[in-house]
Specification:
The chain has 159 residues and is an alpha/beta fold. It has a single domain (2-35, 67-158), classed as NAD(P)-binding Rossmann-like Domain (Rossmann fold), CATH 3.40.50.720. The protein is 33% helix and 10% strand. The chain contains five helices and four strands. The protein has helices at residues 2-6, 19-35, 38-48, 79-90, 152-158, and strands at 72-75, 95-98, 114-117, 140-143. Helix 2 crosses helix 4. It is globular, with a radius of gyration of 18 Å. The N and C termini lie far apart (48 Å). The model has no long low-confidence stretch (mean pLDDT 74). It holds the Pfam family 2-Hacid_dh_C. This is D-isomer specific 2-hydroxyacid dehydrogenase, NAD binding domain. One of its GO terms (cellular component) is cytosol.
Length: 159
């Protein structure tokens, strides 16, 4: 192991192994969330968190706003963030991108219909999404990055 360290050889380093799969999962979450109406997203949130056992019939559950004309913000323009943006360009979705190096305030989260977080692993960004950064009540927050970039209590109270 000393020889490996002295030669600066990375062991188990596979930087692109899940890049496409993670980008595709993120876009799938974006598409699925765009089809659900805001009221249905609240309904499923309550069911998933078992806050409410409501068996209401919802005939328009897949009649959401869609992505056409939506504002999608991508925070963290790493390789996966770039792949997500390519998918959005192919689908003619308007998106705004900021890298983590840029200030989060450069992204107008209050105007975003969807915010995707793809911040690369580093010790620095912890709880950068707090109560000040959450969007309007109808927005969708998709974090396929790291758990600790989000203040979980602020996310829960933002609804």
């Amino acid at each position: 192991m000393k020889e490996i360290k002295s030669r600066n050889i990375k062991v188990g380093y596979t930087p692109n192994i899940l890049m496409d799969a993670t980008a595709e999962l993120t876009v799938a979450l974006l598409l699925a969330a765009s089809l659900l109406q805001h009221t249905q997203r609240q309904y499923y949130y309550k069911r998933i968190t078992r806050l409410e056992q409501d068996n209401a019939w919802a005939p328009f559950w897949m009649c959401g706003q869609g992505l056409s004309g939506s504002n999608v913000g991508i925070v963290g323009f790493c390789r996966i963030g770039q792949e997500i943006a390519k998918d959005q360009q192919a689908q003619k979705i308007d998106s705004e991108r900021v890298s983590f190096d840029e200030l989060l305030s450069d992204l107008s989260t209050s105007d975003s219909d969807f915010v995707i977080v793809r911040i690369a692993l580093s010790p620095e960004p912890a709880n950068i999404f707090n109560e000040d950064e959450f969007m309007k009540p109808t927005s969708v927050f998709i974090n396929t990055s790291r758990e600790d970039v989000v203040d979980q209590n602020a996310l829960i109270s933002a609804k």
